[in-house]
Each structure stands twice: as structure tokens, then as C-alpha cells.
Amino acid sequence: MWARGQRRPAQPAPAPGAAPESTRAAPDDPRQRWLDAEAALLLSLLMPDWSFGFRMEPGATEPHVWIASTTCPSWARVHADGRVEQAGGRHLADEADQAWQRWQVWEEPAVSDFGLTVDLHHHTQTVWLHHPDNPLWSTPTHSPEGDDKPF
């Protein structure tokens, strides 16, 4: 995994007043995957280029989860009452739902079933499942200085 200085800079959390482009209702509390540390780690292995956090809005009794792309201005907010709000070209909450469904179809592999290959020649890091010949996604490596030169 990348060291903190090698990570792409995260987009900031969406502003509390930011208007979503779409809103949908989830049947249960859609935050559960992010509130569970192992599930959140699995999501980070299943889908690339995003970050998340928690925020309390004025008057709220529970925090919402915010999700932000690290490659574009897309964001989502996932609320305890089942509201899922999204904006931008990537529908991050939908991507997370699809990733979670794939994980279930794959018979719910454990975190230990995933691996990471760092290829210094091609300047990529690739997440794979069960074996390096089964890649899930790749992302370019970045230097600690953020200038995208190999280190």
C-alpha cells in the first residue's frame, strides 16, 4: 500500500450544504459498510480512487459518511436514515454497492485473499484477488513529492 506521502491527494469532504445531483433511499442504514473497519478495508480493495470520512451536520444525532473521489470532483453522502446523495460523474455510492455485490458473488473472500503488486518498471500498483494473475484494478504510483515521477 502507498505510504501517506505517496497517496493521491484526496478531494475534500462535500460541503454540508452541497446540493446532490441525485438522491435515493436505501432500505437499511447504508453507512454500515463504512462503519465496519473490515468492510471498509474490503471496499478499498474492491474499488479504486476514493476516500471517505464521517461528519456531523448541525442538529443531527448520528454522523453521515462522505465519500469523495481522488481523481475527480465526484462525491456522495450516506445517511443513517437511508438517504444516499451523490454528485459528479462517478456515482461513488453506486460503485460501492456494485463492488459489494461482486464480493458476495465471489463468495465473500477475506482481506487475506487480496494482494498488491508494485511494478516499479511500469510505475503501477495492482490489487489482485487470490493470485497476481487475477488483477482487479491498477493505479499509477506517485513519488512522495507528488510529481508523478517513479521513486
Task: Please explain how this structure is put together.
With 151 residues, the chain is of the alpha+beta class. It is built from three helices and eight strands; from the N terminus they run βααββββαβββ. It has helices at residues 32-35, 37-46, 92-105; strands at residues 22-25, 50-55, 64-69, 75-78, 83-87, 114-119, 124-129, 135-140. The radius of gyration is 16 Å and the shape is globular.
List the helices and strands and how they pair.
Blueprint: E1 22-25, H1 32-35, H2 37-46, E2 50-55, E3 64-69, E4 75-78, E5 83-87, H3 92-105, E6 114-119, E7 124-129, E8 135-140
Antiparallel strand pairs: 1-5, 2-3, 3-4, 4-5, 6-7, 7-8
Shape: globular
List unreliable stretches of 5+ residues: 1-7, 144-151
**Strand runs, count:** 8
Mean pLDDT: 86
Largest sheet: 5 strands, antiparallel
| SSE topology string | EHHEEEEHEEE
- Treating each run of at least 4 consecutive H or I residues as one helix, how many helices? 3
What portion of residues is helical?
Answer: 10-25%
Query: How would you write the strand order of the largest sheet?
Result: 1-5-4-3-2
Residues in β-strands, percent: 25-35%
